[in-house]
């Protein structure tokens, strides 16, 4: 699979999660899971790691960035009191 299609699929996946996931507690824990999984994946994977045609280093990079984005914007859907 080409890198551009992997970028598109990962970007679309995180856009859907960002738009559809509204509870802040769930966004917080999912973001921490993405962040931890991405960090572990980037440290432990070998240089040429592929699974099902996906470059796993690219997936771990998107997991880190998506986890940080979800964590810092976890209260986006809550109304101000």
UniProtKB/TrEMBL annotation:
Membrane-spanning residues where?
A: 6-22, 29-45, 51-72
Query: What's in the keyword line of the UniProt record?
Result: Membrane, Transmembrane, Transmembrane helix
Name the source's superkingdom. Bacteria
Which named protein is this? Uncharacterized protein
């Amino acid at each position: 699979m080409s890198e551009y299609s992997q970028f598109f699929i990962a970007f679309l996946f995180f856009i859907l999660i960002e738009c559809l996931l509204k509870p802040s507690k769930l966004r917080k824990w999912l973001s921490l899971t993405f962040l931890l999984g991405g960090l572990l994946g980037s440290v432990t994977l070998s240089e040429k790691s592929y699974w099902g045609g996906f470059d796993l280093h690219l997936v771990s990079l998107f997991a880190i960035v998506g986890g940080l984005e979800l964590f810092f914007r976890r209260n986006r859907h809550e109304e101000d009191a």
